[in-house]
Specification:
The complex is a heterodimer of chains A (494) and B (567). Chain A has 494 residues and is an alpha/beta fold. Chain A has 15 helices and 13 strands. Classes of the chains: A alpha/beta (494), B alpha/beta (567).
Chain lengths: 494, 567
């Protein structure tokens, strides 16, 4: 995930409808995972300038112009990054990417597994139109896989599985079938900000934020703690603004906090949702990337009893846990057959190749390899990379959060912002980029406190070292203005 | 069923209050039904919560079946009442077929995977059976799926197999080329196809990997005979042509705006424009009859385009473009370069975009006919508004690959469509395979295309000979995987309801075809029959086809006799 400097542009209100415009306005900063930093520099002629949205010269519809305008911002950054991507041999002074949440630690294991002979199978039905929910053989494997790895008390069923080409597509499809245009999902922030685009692009669905604080107050036991009170308040607020809320999105393990919800908390949130007849989308895309056992992660599918099974929809994908974001595979698990069917009917647009479906089935059924080779090695490497970066941060006296799940550390650089504004956050972000290290800044996650950054650590050691060195350089040039940092506990630090 | 008499239509002298009363009865009925369903659900939930785990599952299954049955019965009842209330005295709702496939429902437009029914008739009561968990548009999408894929799903579960399931469905409804699977399988298993590189497993360029876009540009330059090399920057690669169309509709139109489409027309795009983009397709109805202005059946002329456009504008529609399919689906014909030029000039005159779908461009099997791609034109009337779609599904018989490409000279459009890339992306591994496939022009030219054309020609010859023997008029001279056949003489009266019943009869004989209504054809009685299947299956399918028509004929005779006796 990447970040974009904030610039207060007003998009024409006629475009995607006022609700959407408003949302995009506030949060375009985050972008498609895998996109890169949009270095919104002065040198991008026309881009980001609302004047270019004028219809005089355009061949597009007004929504098309709006979509393109946002995309150009993304595209420009994408090119900026890729034109100057770090390469050990060819471009050692290129940009190091700590911004995109990708696991680059296990390609060797994966390429070996994917090259085995069982992966190359081919039969006619794989080349023809599939069942749009996904081939049955794959849905069976997904059900078995989730039963096992989510520790479901009962066997999960293939008919509750729908397979798509990525989590983004799944968010888009769910938003479209659960909400009318202009309706909203609640989501606690900081959150993986690309979701706003996923739900908005086709679905024109917005997000209602549940803002969380780093400060531990009242009954809270840790920073950015989500409580039912905060959910209730945000829901009331949304209603008072005339926004109809249809559901709640939870990301567990959390992105960017690297934390997990306890089963008790999860249960409370689900009961809250049931009370208000809200759908709950639980995005568990990092569920196997919990690399510290002490974290005690529990999938929502492991709960003995779901308060509202018909309105609980679980997402998982191979992008993160198997480090294959380019493979484009995600899955929905829902007991609600109407939702499954409605999502499946959108799968005409979000389908994936039969051959890839076959390969995924092979991969997911190979529990021996997953348990004995892949997961232990992946966790060990994640842990080592995490240890390296967190020790570097500790040596710099920088507070951070990260308990041992996901690929990232949520870093508190507030002491480097004298005035504590988002402008300064942006300036600092740009200073990092000028020094050839790309990070994601807190505003992109709709964090309400300026000064937080997400560091992705799931990269090869040599790149990590170089990246951290560049980070140190930037901070060293800046640290003289530091005030006393607010004390922050780091539960994962011990 | 005591309400039924109330709901029956009242003679023409009825009063306004009677109409209102009828409507309120209908509404009440709906309410009652909704209530019933709700009660049943709650009851079942209670039942289930008392059971042990294992027992529960078995129990749930039984309950589900029971519930499905009840729902169906109720739905039927209401459908009957509704049709009684709104239609004539005769109840024209086809009843469910009597066979045991429980997911085949009744009275619905039918289309298969590739081509859904563009205008499903979802009755209100049916919508009432969809759970309240979905949004209104979710219900719409759900219903569209049910209507479009039921029969296809029935086929998926009960496919014909020459040894294992000789009584299973044969699918001559879905436009798939099954004639060259042997060649494709061989090609795809060659060593150059399997490649796992780090970049393929990471986030891609959302427009498509540069290596694939370059290959697509080269491929189209060569096979479309472009006068100048095409630019990879003008290519956007997505997971299927429907995705490309959907994204185009999003960026070229605002919700409620429209495209013109000559009909009969491929239904899949109607699905696309309706589901996500909310763009209307306005039919330019073509006719089978040959007249002074219609020199061949279903001829598209600029006059008809002008007329349709004028009419749409008079109705206040904002028409943004024209959608053409060339080679045509379901007509199996191609546009001459002259006609194509005229359509493009018409579009330019009215500032319309032209989306031209050339997905069958390499499936022209009559070698005496030359296909002219829009990309081959030396000077396009309006380059910036001409957008071409192509994919590998038909020409290479790999619909399961999910690949579609857009070529547009308009960089603004290409860039806007790219914004949809991450929702319609293709696996890196698949992109590699596609690139390998497309770049091997030697294999394509020397092995694949000649064999494919030959096999298409043979299958076409076989099917058309059968049709001629049955004296069934058909349309298709040269291209595509289908013939467009006229079964009017088997319909009495010649209505869409009868067309639907005949379709059902084919289905009862385990044969899937697609009917004309799904192509927005204005005349009842047309069917599309896919011939690109292996000969043994094709033979059996044609036997079933003949059986159905024979049965239909007997029924017609019996009916005529009855009528005669009654008189």
């Amino acid at each position: 995930m990447f970040t974009l400097p904030q610039k207060n542009f007003r998009a024409p209100t006629t475009c995607l409808g006022p609700t959407c415009t408003q949302d995009l306005d506030g949060s375009h900063g985050d972008d498609l995972e895998g996109e890169c930093s949009r270095k919104l520099d002065q040198k991008l002629p026309g881009v980001g300038d609302p004047a270019t949205l004028s219809s005089d010269t355009s061949y597009l519809s007004s929504r098309g112009r709006m979509i393109k305008w946002f995309w150009d911002l993304a595209e420009e950054g994408y090119r900026t990054y890729h034109m100057d991507e770090y390469d050990e041999d060819k471009n050692p002074s290129g940009i190091i990417n700590f911004g995109t949440s990708e696991n680059k630690l296990c390609f060797d294991l994966l390429s070996r597994r994917l090259s085995q002979s069982d992966m190359q199978w081919l039969e006619p039905s794989l080349l023809q139109y599939p069942d749009w929910r996904g081939h049955l053989f794959l849905r069976e494997e997904v059900a078995k896989f989730l039963t096992f790895y989510c520790k479901s008390p009962v066997p999960l069923k293939p008919e509750n599985v729908v397979v798509l080409n990525g989590g983004a597509s799944l968010f888009s499809a769910l938003a479209t079938v659960l909400c009318e245009a202009g309706e909203a999902f609640l989501i606690p922030t900081p959150y993986y900000g690309a979701i706003i685009q996923h739900v908005c692009l086709y679905g024109n669905v917005r997000l209602a934020y549940v803002y969380l604080d780093s400060e531990v107050t009242g009954l809270d036991t840790r920073p950015f703690q989500l409580t039912v009170e905060k959910l209730e308040m945000a829901l009331r607020e949304a209603y008072s603004e005339g926004v109809k809320v249809k559901g709640l999105i939870l990301i567990n393990p959390q992105n960017p906090l690297g934390d997990v919800y306890s089963p008790e908390e999860l249960q409370e949130y689900l009961v809250f949702a049931k009370r208000h007849k809200l759908h709950v989308i639980v995005d568990e895309v990092y569920m196997l990337s919990v690399f510290k056992e002490s974290v005690g992660y529990r999938s929502v599918l492991s709960l003995e009893r779901l308060p509202d099974p018909q309105r609980t929809h679980v997402m998982w994908a191979t992008s993160k846990d198997f480090g294959m974001s380019g493979l484009r595979f995600a899955t929905l698990y829902t007991e609600n057959q109407d939702v499954a069917t409605a999502v499946a009917s959108l799968c005409r647009y979000h389908g994936l190749s039969g051959l890839v479906q076959y390969q995924m089935a092979q991969l997911l059924q190979d529990h021996d390899w997953i348990n004995q080779v892949y997961l232990p090695e992946n966790h060990a490497r994640l842990k080592a990379a995490h240890t390296y970066v967190s020790e570097e941060l500790r040596a710099l006296g920088i507070p951070f959060l990260s308990r041992g799940a996901g690929f990232f550390i949520w870093v508190d650089l507030r002491k480097y912002l004298p005035k504590g504004t988002f402008e300064e956050e942006m300036q600092l972000w740009r200073r990092f980029l000028d020094n050839k290290v790309l990070l994601s800044f807190g505003k992109a996650f709709e964090c309400k406190e300026p000064g937080w950054f997400r560091f992705v650590f799931s990269d090869q050691a040599h790149r990590l070292r170089l990246g951290m060195q560049r980070v140190r350089q930037v901070l060293a040039g800046k640290s003289q203005v530091a005030e006393d940092p607010p004390s922050l506990s780091d539960p994962g630090a011990k | 069923m005591s309400h039924r008499s109330d709901a029956l239509p009242v003679p023409s002298g009825q009063t306004r209050s009677q109409v209102l009363r009828d409507q309120s009865i209908y509404t009440q009925l709906l309410e009652v039904t909704r209530h019933l369903q709700q009660t049943m659900r709650e009851h079942f939930v209670q039942l289930m919560s008392r059971q042990g785990l294992l027992q529960e599952r078995r129990h749930t299954q039984a309950i589900r079946e029971q519930e499905a049955l009840l729902s169906r019965l109720l739905c039927q009842m209401i459908n009957l009442l509704q049709s009684g209330a709104t239609g004539g005295l005769e109840l024209q709702v086809p009843l469910p077929s009597k066979d045991s496939r429980d997911d085949v429902r009744y009275g619905q437009g039918t289309q298969l995977s590739g081509q859904p029914d563009p205008v499903p008739q979802l009755s209100d009561c049916e919508a009432a059976f969809v759970s309240r968990d979905l949004s209104n548009r979710g219900i719409d999408i759900y219903a569209l799926y049910q209507l479009s894929f039921q029969d296809y799903n029935a086929y998926q579960k009960d496919k014909y197999h020459k040894d294992k399931n000789t009584l299973g469905f044969i699918n001559l409804g879905t436009s798939e080329n099954k004639l060259c699977i042997d060649l494709m399988a061989e090609r795809l298993q060659e060593s150059d196809m399997n490649c796992v590189e780090e970049a393929l497993l990471q986030y891609p360029d959302w427009r498509g990997q540069p290596f694939l876009r370059e290959e697509v540009a080269r491929f189209l330059t060569y096979y479309c005979r472009a006068p100048a090399p095409l630019d990879p920057e003008n290519v956007v690669v997505l997971n299927g042509c429907c995705s490309v169309f959907s994204a185009l509709a999003m960026v070229l139109c605002d919700p409620g705006e429209a495209f013109l489409v000559p009909t009969p027309f491929y239904g899949g795009f109607a699905f696309s424009s309706r589901l996500y983009a909310k763009v209307e397709l306005i039919p330019v109805h073509l006719e089978s009859k040959i007249t002074a202005i219609n020199t061949y059946p279903f001829q598209l002329t600029v006059d008809k385009l002008e007329e349709a456009l004028l009419e749409a504008r008079l109705e206040g529609k904002n028409v943004r473009g024209l959608v053409l399919t060339n080679p045509q689906n379901p007509l199996g014909d191609i546009y001459s370069s002259d006609s194509l030029m005229k359509y493009l000039e018409f579009a330019k005159r009215h500032d319309l975009h032209v989306i031209i779908d050339e997905i069958y461009m390499l499936s022209v099997f009559d070698e005496s006919i030359t296909f002219h791609s829009v990309l081959s034109m030396k000077s396009l009337p309006d380059r910036s508004r001409t957008h071409m779609i192509w994919g590998t599904s038909k020409d290479f018989g790999i619909s399961g690959f999910r690949f579609g490409a857009l070529y547009t000279h308009n960089k603004e459009v290409a860039s806007a469509v790219s914004a949809f890339g991450y929702l319609h992306s293709i696996s890196g591994i698949t992109q590699h395979k596609l690139c390998q496939l497309l770049q091997n022009t030697e294999w394509i030219d020397k092995v694949y295309l000649p064999t494919n054309r030959f096999r298409l020609r043979e299958a076409h010859k076989y099917v058309t000979a059968k049709l001629k023997a049955l004296e069934i008029p058909f349309h298709n001279r040269s291209s595509g995987l289908y013939v467009w056949i006229n079964l009017k003489k088997y319909l009495d009266p010649c209505t869409f309801e009868e067309e639907q019943l005949l379709y059902r009869r084919f289905l009862d004989h385990k044969l899937l075809l697609s009917c004309g209504k799904a192509y927005m054809c204005k005349e009842p009685g047309w069917f599309r029959l896919i011939f690109a299947d292996e000969l043994p299956r094709l033979k059996l399918a044609m036997r079933r086809f003949c059986d159905v028509l024979e049965e239909q004929k007997q029924d017609l005779i019996a009916k005529q006799l009855e009528d005669a006796i009654r008189e």
